[in-house]
Specification:
Strand content: 5-15%
CATH architecture of the largest domain: 3-Layer(aba) Sandwich
CATH topology of the largest domain: Mannitol-specific EII, Chain A
Number of domains: 6
Distance between the termini: 40 Å
Number of strands: 13
Strand order of the largest sheet: 9-12-13-11-10
Structural class: alpha/beta
Helix content: 40-55%
């Protein structure tokens, strides 16, 4: 059973018998509908002995019909991954397999051994290894070939560990609480985790659950690499700069405890390296009193934050430059972020796709703000970091709407750190201002130490296993539309009319293009030809796309320029006969957002409506079925 076949079964099983079309399944798995249909034929042959079949209804799609539900549970959902190793079948699966094999082995691996494991020809294997080399090159790593021995990865040890952690994060698109590290036995991981928590509490250091997971991952990788006699080498200056810091003492005690229990010796360089990781986490309290936070912020970072917000205001008219809380929180985030990039340390943002989908305006503004970091430090932050900056901007916008009204008392339990916790806090207070007073936030692992005596209920982004005396409402970190409806069925939002931004001359249906660049070139050229934009407009949209792809899932992309550049606000629309790959996702509906450069419009309502539109799979498929401008406009009107 291949990984994709397993995913198809999971998708169909998760909708409880409701049909899914091949187009919907292909959008989820980034393959063509034809491939989905072929996979389903193969699945049915494999599941036939267990009285399980995927049926199809003409015009509606595929659904799972298990005559033997116990068979489905036992033979598929539980036993497939445990008893039958998944053999990589696609080039992408093989590249990931080879990358993992090479990263987690310090010794040489013979090509013949790899050949027998992936069941492909030698020439195909060489093509896949070429892709692996391209990935490794991004980390300044290379594949060394030694006759009669095989191949292995060579390069700086810090780069190898960075690549390993990136691989782990990228291959685990699961909620944090469900993630498992396969680097070490679970018993060893528990010892490491307990040692981290014990010393963080001892030194009164508060970090997010994600930062805790990052530290656990780092130490697990270090443990495995040291066991294979692979050590990091750091400059002497790194040691002298950090040996008197609190983080060095914490790191030393954590690694000493692990040494005592697991028997692996961590040299001084490893202690320094862990100290640097600790300094790259958010070391601020989740208490809402900000009076003591100023001592964490230096003037250089504060000026950087001010310039970022000023540039965002200039481009988007958000009027955030006077928000001292935003500047402080952004500075607190930027200080460890810059440190991470200086030492090539990655950060994972499990909310990235939700942020891009639910807060496209804030994400676009954060991308603009991140340009200031490049101007000053000559490195570009990745999408994960931009996503966290977007959370701070969204928080500031939500806070500006908020008013102080007597509300019920609740506690927020959030796994994603101060930025997302504060965003969730302001979202809840703003949307339920007549009912809710959020008295604080806490990480899941600290909940046991929190008094619930004066709290009416909890809003949590992670499952709480123990029984509590007060109600718990579970939501996503982003507090999307479906989550809000759990607390309140209907909300009042600013209204806008999408129809007034849609024009016949800028709507193109059922077209054929092969690449995102070709689509953007076509749409922007129509604006330039009609004197709605100048000749440099195409390059502005392409440059924004290079910084962070604007594909949001559900077959939709929302490209836009670096800054406003048209004579009116227009939505340029294009639908494709066949989906194309766009930033790692399949896209068939493209909405180019063109903003009037002559006036500072409040775009929040427009972005909100666009998010509602593209977040609804049914509406997207309805729009893709339109063949005329009038049909499309009518679908927009009634959606």
């Amino acid at each position: 059973m291949t990984g994709r076949e397993y995913a198809i079964i999971q998708l169909l099983n998760n909708v409880n018998g409701a049909p899914l079309t091949s187009a919907q399944l292909s959008a989820e798995l980034n393959v063509s509908p034809k491939t989905i249909r072929n996979d389903i034929k193969a699945i049915n042959l494999k599941l036939k002995p267990y009285a399980i079949q995927i049926q199809s209804i003409r015009g509606k799609g595929f659904f799972l019909e298990p005559h033997n539900k116990e068979g489905l549970r036992k033979y598929f959902l539980e036993d497939t991954e445990k008893k039958h190793p998944i053999i990589p079948t696609t080039s992408k699966e093989r590249v990931n397999f080879l990358l993992e094999k090479l990263l987690f082995n310090s010794d040489y691996i013979k090509i013949e051994d790899l050949h027998t494991e992936v069941f492909v020809s030698r020439s195909t294997l060489q093509i896949d290894l070429k892709s692996v080399r391209q990935i490794l090159k991004k980390y300044n790593l290379f594949i060394e070939h030694k006759p009669h021995y095989g191949i292995k990865i060579v390069g700086k040890e810090t780069s190898i560990r960075f690549c390993i952690s990136e691989y782990i994060f990228n291959q685990k698109p699961l909620p944090l609480e469900k993630q498992q590290l396969n680097i070490l036995p679970s018993s060893d991981l528990k010892i490491i985790r307990d040692s981290i928590l014990k010393n963080l509490r001892k030194y009164k250091i508060i970090i997010s659950d994600i930062s805790l997971h990052n530290l656990l991952t780092h130490i697990a990788i270090a443990y495995k690499r040291i066991s294979e006699d692979a050590h990091v080498h750091l400059e002497k200056n790194d040691f002298y700069q950090i040996k008197d810091e609190k983080e060095y003492r914490v790191a030393k005690e954590i690694l000493f405890e692990i040494k005592e229990k697991l028997g692996v010796d961590f040299p001084q360089n490893e202690i320094v390296y862990l100290s640097i990781h600790l300094k790259g986490t958010t070391l601020v309290s989740s208490i809402r009193d900000n009076n003591d936070m100023h001592r964490f912020i230096d003037s250089e970072v504060y000026l950087l934050a001010k310039e970022m917000v000023q540039r965002i205001d200039n481009h988007y008219g958000m009027k955030l430059a006077g928000d001292k809380e935003l500047l402080m929180n952004l500075s607190l985030h930027l200080k460890p972020a810059i440190n991470r990039y200086r030492y090539q340390m990655n950060i994972r943002n499990p909310m990235l796709e939700d942020i891009k989908l639910n807060f496209p305006l804030s994400f676009a503004a954060a991308t603009t703000g991140a340009e200031v970091i490049y101007d000053q430090f000559n490195f570009r932050v990745n999408e994960d970091e931009v996503g966290y900056i977007a959370l701070h901007l969204e928080t500031a916008q939500e806070k500006s709407k908020n008013t102080s009204i007597k509300r019920k008392r609740c506690l927020i339990v959030c796994a994603s750190g101060l930025g997302s916790a504060q965003l969730l806090l302001h979202k809840v207070e703003n949307e339920f201002r007549d009912r809710v007073n959020v008295i604080g936030t806490t990480e899941y692992y600290n909940l046991a130490n929190y008094s619930l005596e004066d709290i009416d209920f909890i809003i949590s982004t992670v499952p709480i296993e123990r029984s509590l005396s007060i109600p718990v409402i579970y939501v996503s970190t982003i507090l999307g539309h479906s989550d809000i409806s759990v607390i309140e069925k209907i909300l009042d939002h600013q209204t806008a009319n999408l129809e007034k931004y849609i024009f016949r001359e800028y709507t193109f249906l059922n077209r054929d293009f092969e690449t995102p660049e070709a689509v953007i070139q076509f749409l922007t050229n129509q604006l330039i030809i009609n004197n709605q934009a100048d000749a440099g407009y195409t390059q502005s949209v392409l440059e924004r796309e290079r910084q962070a792809p604007t594909s949001f899932g559900n077959l939709v992309a929302l490209p836009h320029p670096m800054q406003a550049g048209t004579t009116a606000t227009i939505l340029s629309i294009l639908t494709l006969n066949k989906p194309i790959e766009w930033g790692g996702k399949q896209v068939q509906l493209v909405i180019l957002l063109n903003v009037d450069k002559s006036k500072k419009e409040d775009l929040s309502s427009l972005f909100h409506l666009l998010v509602q539109l593209v977040d609804n799979k049914h509406v997207v498929f309805e729009l893709l079925s339109c063949h005329t401008y009038d049909q499309f406009r009518e679908k927009i009107r009634i959606s």
